[in-house]
Amino acid sequence: MTEPLAGEGFELRRATPADLDFIVELSAHEDVEPYMAAMSAREPEEILRELELSTSEPECYGRFVVQVEGERAGLMAFEVSSRRSRIANLRGLMLLPGYRGRGIADAAARLLVRHLFFDLDYHRVQLECYGFNERAIRHAERVGFLREGVKRKAYWRHGEWVDSVLFGLLREDLE
């Protein structure tokens, strides 16, 4: 995909190196960072590697900027989990606090999921979030993901073991 994906009042476009400072700042935002996976890319070099993969293997990796009226509002990403079984992991949804509460994150996730299913031919899209991240759990359910399970005390985060909640969505759920 080279053209942005158009949503109602927003668009998704592939992130480029010109977005690096925005991504670094968003990842470090005090209302975003505590909810990010500990393994998420935060350093400029790591982010640039992900942007390169998004460009060189666009069917397997993607970092997308959420833009509202031409302004960067957030970020979301996907990566292939299984090529043979056509499974993608949706991850890294971050939205600046000023853009929350307007349904943008839900609509953007739905748009990206449709792109993954119908343009890139994935069979399944899955996501995982910390059990303490009630906002992400509500978001996944609003988008249509089904809760498939909990990995108990799966990750060491903020000085304690925390659960992870697993969600899945199948192409047939949208057809």
Topology, please?
Layout: E1 5-7, E2 10-14, H1 20-28, H2 44-56, E3 61-68, E4 71-82, E5 87-95, H3 104-119, E6 124-130, H4 134-143, E7 146-157, E8 160-170, H5 171-174
Parallel strand pairs: 5-6
Antiparallel strand pairs: 1-2, 2-3, 3-4, 4-5, 6-8, 7-8
Helix pairs in contact: 3-4
Keywords:
175 residues; alpha+beta; Aminopeptidase; eight-stranded mixed sheet; 5 helices; 30% helix; globular
Task: Describe this structure as you would to a colleague.
- It is a single chain.
- The protein is of the alpha+beta class and 175 residues long.
- It is built from five helices and eight strands; from the N terminus they run ββααβββαβαββα.
- The protein has helices at residues 20-28, 44-56, 104-119, 134-143, 171-174, and strands spanning 5-7, 10-14, 61-68, 71-82, 87-95, 124-130, 146-157, 160-170.
- A hairpin with a 2-residue loop joins strand 7 and strand 8.
- Helix 3 crosses helix 4.
- The model has no long low-confidence stretch (mean pLDDT 90).
